[in-house]
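re: ur question from earlier - yeah i can do the single chain one, its not a big deal. heres the input i used so u can compare w yours
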Amino acid sequence: MKIFSNYRYYTKEKMNMSNSNIKGSNENDNVMRAMKANSYQKGDILLVDFGTNMDYCLTAGLRPAICISCAEFNERAPIMSVVPMTKHFKQIDMDSHVFIDKADCIGLWESGMAMCEQLRCVDRSQAIRKIASINDYKLMNKITKAIQLHFGSDEERV
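and the output i got, formated as tokens:
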């Protein structure tokens, strides 16, 4: 049996995996490790390790990201939802890009741009530390609206 991962095929034997290993203690160890990591609040700007895979059009490396999942969820789950940020203002006019002014944040040294089209879930242990927080609810509403526009969701379609 083959498993598809990162556009490469690997056999189960090559990956040294079995069905019991996939759902066994390894999963529990990962959850326990993640649950020991700090929990954050919506609007916190975190330094997140997105990994080293730069083969694709996704953000990678250590970079700031805005926590967009609510604190209650983040406390109970090993994952949280974040929006990566960049200091490069390419395509700032895209509906899914939101300017993050350092004046609207506590502790942010440099303004940046939230890339809402790259919203993703990360393991809590991928968050290295909190570096700032958004203190303007209107800015958080802009981010929420950009995510809604990205997914094409609006109240009239429901």
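The domain at 39-157 is CATH 2.30.30.110 (SH3 type barrels.). not sure if urs matches, ping me
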